[in-house]
Write a structure and sequence with these properties.
Order of helices and strands: HEEEHHHHHHHHHHHHHHHHH
Distance between the termini: 52 Å
Largest sheet: 3 strands, antiparallel
Keywords: Transferase, Tricarboxylic acid cycle
Bound molecules: acetyl coenzyme *A
Shape: globular
Helix content: 55-70%
Number of helices: 18
Family: Belongs to the citrate synthase family.
Radius of gyration: 23 Å
GO cellular component, one term: cytoplasm
Oligomer: single chain
Pfam family, one: Citrate_synt
Strand order of the largest sheet: 1-2-3
Catalytic activity: oxaloacetate + acetyl-CoA + H2O = citrate + CoA + H(+)
Strand content: under 5%
Length: 402
Amino acid sequence: GVNLDKLMAKTGLVTLDPGFVNTAACESDITYIDGGAGILRYRGYPIEELAAKSNFVEVSYLLIYGELPTAQQYEEFADRVRRHTLLHEDLRKFFDGFPRDAHPMPVLSSAVSALSTFYQDSLNPFDRNQVELSTHRLLAKLPTIAAYAYKKSVGQPFLYPDNSLGLVENFLRMTFGFPAEPYEVDPTMARALDLLFILHADHEQNCSTSTVRMVGSSEANLFASISAGINALFGPLHGGANSAVLDMLEGIHADGGDVDSFVNRVKNKEPGVKLMGFGHRVYKNYDPRARIIKKTADEVLEKLGSDDPLLDIALKLEERALSDDYFIERNLYPNVDFYTGLIYKAMGFPTKFFTVLFALGRLPGWIAHWREMLDDPARKISRPRQVYTGQAQRSYVPMDQR
Ligand code: ACO
């Protein structure tokens, strides 16, 4: 192949591609997307099949190791992920240091960053056993960290993990349960959350995953790299969109539910007014995850007994946008997060917490990409070029002459 380094040194040519719209930064075996056809596959398996037949722990294994596990591999993996759920006691103190009304995303990223200080025996990215250990630790501990962040925000006592439960059930119990009180996990809720985690588990080189790869390319440890990914996910144009959708629906509801006038504001490009949960950099036809969720949303909302007026607004908004030239011309369709917020709300999660749920789902994808990046013989530190547009050389002017 062409040695781009040498070519650049010789010619001075660089590609200017803001937002990496057309620039691949790596080769990857993990996730295939055909944005035009609305196809998403993890390791070759269509998302529709995984959603119908698999579970989140199995999908995590598939993404990280490349193949579906045998029964024994599955048991061993699930067992390790179950055994590492406890947090170091001193880590609990972190949660007291943050303001109670803190957004849970920076709490999550700070606690994950702190894992580098508590688990120093699994930081070497080139020691296979340590990478395995940090992988299991992260998968097991992130739900505990997330549940603690929730408990802190509502002023309730923390619950230690119950390792007889599965990952999603344990997370629901730590979040919504109380010490010394039995907590019955609602199977509909557990299954729906597991499904949402599967749908979020990977999405190739999105902003947060690229961040994890970029930080990891400096050979930073897994905890440090994932913490950076969580911060990237926090933004409203990425993971933050799921809460932004709900804020938008609530705003429309408070204004009397007038969908048309909101759509007109979007079309007039009022600053800061976008149809949140619509549009995607890669999917320009439909988002296959949104299709699966839409089917599930009705079912789940009915079973959980929710008659949320916001659902009605969401349905009207979708119908209105899908028949409007502005959205049609720009290929704007509902993305995965148009409906997730309504489901999370029906489950009892506060709006601020939605992006944390996205992070829990996306974790195995981040880990898979970090590991693939480190194993890639063509790996290089991420170091984009720029096109300099500033001043030409000039001489320093002493302060009294400016
Ligand atoms: N509402 C209204 N107009 C939109 C929207 C939207 N949600 N999304 C894009 N557009 C318009 C743009 O204004 C632009 O119009 P123009 O050609 O007249 O200037 C055109 O559609 C193209 O949009 P871009 O911003 O160039 O598309 P890009 O690929 O850069 O952005 C993004 C993708 C960030 C997802 C965008 O569609 C958006 O902001 N959506 C809302 C936020 C959201 O839902 N994010 C979640 C993404 S999915 C995820 O992270 C799971």
